[in-house]
Automatic annotation (TrEMBL):
The gene is Cmtm3. GO terms for cellular component: membrane. Keywords: Membrane, Transmembrane, Transmembrane helix. PANTHER family: CKLF-LIKE MARVEL TRANSMEMBRANE DOMAIN-CONTAINING PROTEIN 3, MARVEL-CONTAINING POTENTIAL LIPID RAFT-ASSOCIATED PROTEIN. Residues 1-106 form the MARVEL domain. This is CKLF3 protein. Residues 111-132 are annotated as: Disordered. It is a multi-pass membrane protein. It comes from the Eukaryota. It is found in: Membrane. The chain crosses the membrane at residues 7-36, 48-72, 84-102.
Length: 132
């Protein structure tokens, strides 16, 4: 919703050249929402969905921060300033989502390393030496 509001602000402003980034983020968020809602993530196991969400959040936070600085500093109309302010808010929201998704990613990677044969082998060796 925030990306759509920013998109509308940039269309109505002199900074119309910035409208593509919020539009793409809105469409990507919409796609991921429908992918999770329709259980598409369970059908395509080869793609790690939280990683795609993580990459989207990182790039969105960086892009929103950059275009918000440019919109607020370069343009003087109210819609550009509003788009910039909403862009800073979106940067914070995407940074929080980035943090949450990063924790999920770390948890997944820790589980993946303990499920690997090398991880089990070293655990078995440690348990054998403890029983001696």
């Amino acid at each position: 919703v925030l990306s759509f509001i920013i998109f509308i602000c940039y269309i109505a402003s002199l900074a119309a050249s910035f409208m593509m980034a919020p539009l793409l983020e809105f469409l990507l968020a919409l796609f991921l929402f429908f992918a999770y809602a329709s259980k598409l993530n369970e059908k395509f196991k080869g793609l790690y969905w939280p990683l795609t969400d993580f990459l989207r959040c990182v790039t969105a936070a960086i892009i929103y921060f950059a275009i918000s600085i440019a919109a607020v500093s370069k343009y003087n109309d109210g819609a550009s300033k509003a788009g910039g302010v909403f862009g800073f808010i979106a940067t914070i929201v995407y940074a929080i989502d980035f943090y949450i998704t990063f924790n999920d990613l770390v948890t997944f990677l820790k589980q993946g390393s303990s499920d690997s044969p090398e991880g089990r082998k070293s655990e078995d060796e440690n348990s054998d030496s403890d029983s001696d």
